[in-house]
Write a structure and sequence with these properties.
With 171 residues, the chain is an alpha/beta fold. It has one domain: Rossmann fold. It contains 6 helices and 6 strands, in the order βαββαβαβαβαα. Strands 2-3-1-4-5-6 form a 6-stranded mixed sheet, with helices on both faces. Helix 4 links the parallel strand 5 and strand 6. The longest helix is centred in the middle third of the chain and has 14 residues. It starts with a strand and ends with a helix. Bound molecules: guanosine-5'-triphosphate and magnesium ion (MG).
């Protein structure tokens, strides 16, 4: 079968301690407790679309303080918020207000620490409010116990792949 290889870079941004590094580790090592040692970690995903195999190298980069350049060079932005911290929600809301007007590319939200849902300060109604204000899809996840992580990744990949121009898949 013919195949095509693509590279996508995901920028992972969010408030301090929201779980950015943990999410990158969950997605690449399958274990949130391993501290990423490199600035970019890679996970290779193979998918089939319209009878064509595509191999995607997904690079994950944790945002630093001054991430305007990083935003410009990324395929997608994944915003991480800690559902036990209202300020983490506000942080994401502020990023969205800043970058949405300048950016057409896809943005997703990981509402993290779902294992601590009984201590949640942010819940589904808040996430729905963000979704309707900014038109952004969100996923409830826990890096700690792995809930929702694969579903999120599959959802994001499907969404991005559906935007690939069909002629790109037929090259
Ligand atoms: N209970 C729980 N703890 C989590 C989860 N994800 C991350 N943590 C913990 O939250 C803390 C912060 O996680 P990090 O991944 O270091 O967060 P970060 O956003 O990379 O933090 P900075 O790089 O310092 O901004 C650590 O103690 C993690 O173990 C989760 O899903 N559930
Ligand atoms: Mg970190």
């Amino acid at each position: 079968m013919a195949f095509q290889r693509l590279t996508w870079k995901f920028l992972i941004a969010g408030s301090k301690g929201s779980g950015k590094s943990s999410l990158i580790s969950s997605l690449t090592y399958g274990d949130f407790s391993i501290t990423p040692t490199k600035p970019l970690l890679k996970r290779t995903i193979t998918k089939e679309f319209n009878g064509k195999k595509i191999i995607i190298d997904v690079l994950f980069q944790e945002a630093n303080g001054n991430y305007e350049k990083q935003v410009q060079s990324s395929t997608a932005i994944l915003l991480v918020l800690d559902i036990t911290e209202e300020k983490s929600y506000n942080f994401v809301k502020n990023i969205l207000s800043d970058i949405i007007p300048e950016r057409k590319g896809p943005i997703f939200i990981a509402a993290n620490k779902l294992d601590l849902k009984y201590e949640a300060a942010v819940w589904i109604d808040d996430m729905e409010a963000l979704k309707s204000e900014f038109g952004i899809e969100y996923f409830l996840v826990s890096c700690k116990d792995g809930q929702g992580i694969n579903e999120m990744m599959n959802g994001i990949i499907e969404r991005l792949a559906s935007k690939l121009p069909v002629n790109k898949l037929n090259e």
